[in-house]
Amino acid sequence: MNRVPDEALVLIPGGTLITATPEEGRALAITLARHMIHNIQPDLDVLKAGRPIYATNPDSLMKASQVVAIEFQTIAAANNYWRP
Predict the structure, then answer these.
(1) Are 17 and 74 a contacting pair, CB within 8 Å?
(2) Looking at residue 39, what is its pLDDT?
């Protein structure tokens, strides 16, 4: 099996949700979503085999964006981005 290395299977890279800017928070949200997928399916060959299917499916792409948005909500709350 072509597996993601165990040391890469972290759920929160760097161990914190705190970021310096909202832009960094958004990038972290994308990273968290990718790490979640790797933790759910660590076999890179299986992931790559499915990519042509979901990469061209509008519903799949919208669902992926929704996952990133939810991750960003968590990061925004941790960083108090919505303060008045």
Answers:
(1) yes
(2) 93
